[in-house]
Amino acid sequence: MIKLYGAALSPYYNKVKIALLEKGVNFQEILTAPSQQEELLAKSPMGKIPFVEVGGHAMAESSVILEWLEDAYPTASLLPPTPNGRAHARQLSAILDLYVLMPALPLYRHWLFGSPLEANAVDTARQQVARGLAAAGQMLDYGPWACGEDFSHADISAACILPALAQMSQALLGEDITAAFPERDNYLQQLSARKSVNRCWSEREAALSAFRARQQQ
Questions:
Q1: Which end of the chain has fewer CB atoms within 10 angstroms, the N or the C?
Q2: Secondary structure letter of residue 44 according to DSSP
Q3: Where would I find the beta strands (DSSP E) of the chain?
Q4: For 72-85, what is each residue's pLDDT tens digit?
Q5: What is the DSSP annotation of 73-120?
Q6: Does residue 144 have a cis bond before it (omega within 30 degrees)?
Q7: What is the pLDDT of residues 16-72, one digit of tens each?
């Protein structure tokens, strides 16, 4: 059985979880925080989550884990069937990860954990996220999913990033920094009907409520 280490508040963790659910793979979730302790670094060299263990072999980095799942479980593919289609999905997923989620992480960590923000962090995040959303918009090819007929890595990234950043920015900034994503509301509604996505969203909300309750104790 695959062991998935991490926490439901991490968009990267939820990427892997959705992929596992879509593949129909048996897995065990093990609540784990990022750490620089030697035991964790032996499994995740940068001390990050998520990471997985498969038969005693550890793998880190969500994009790498998703690619491994494609190789290990090819019959339930999460990439389009053609080389160009697969590249399209990978590119859109990378844009969402690198140019929408990544620049917003300082705000996300501040909202969750109270991590300090550097001067101009909010304005910088707004500008970079807006640019990333514009780039993602150029790549969209709804049909009905982000890259055409096939639910793919691109949809998994969108499902994990857009709601999390929308919730964070509305609470922290009083605005939704993901609102410019084309046809976002209809797309999110469609994603919510996907069992794997709906489960992850529900479990993330439960984890967030429990986390906030612990913070108030």
A1: C
A2: S
A3: 2-6, 27-31, 51-54, 57-60
A4: 999 999 999 999 99
A5: -GGG-SS-SSHHHHHHHHHHHHHHIIIIIHHHHHHHHHHHH-----TT
A6: yes
A7: 999 999 999 999 999 999 999 999 999 999 999 999 999 999 999 999 999 999 999
